Give the backbone structure.
Amino acid sequence: MTLLLVVVTLLGAALLYFSDRQQRLLALPLPPAARLGGLLMVVGGLAGWAAHWGTGVGLFTGLWVFALGSMALPMIVGHLVDGYRAQGRSRS
């Protein structure tokens, strides 16, 4: 049950990121329906966390899983897409 909640919460965070117009990985952001789906997945995941672990611990854990997914994904994408380039060298 806990693994399912982690997956749902992280997938919801990923959908929210990839539907944002400032995401850096896809050529075009996902359509607005993906944003709605991501929001529903995050809210559903948080409700599942609260139902499984109780309101205090469940929401705390669910929000941390969402926060880690929301921070780690843009950082990984930024590292892969932007990367470090020395001055004067082209990106190839």
Q: What stands out?
A: The first helix runs from residue 2 to 18. The radius of gyration is 16 Å.
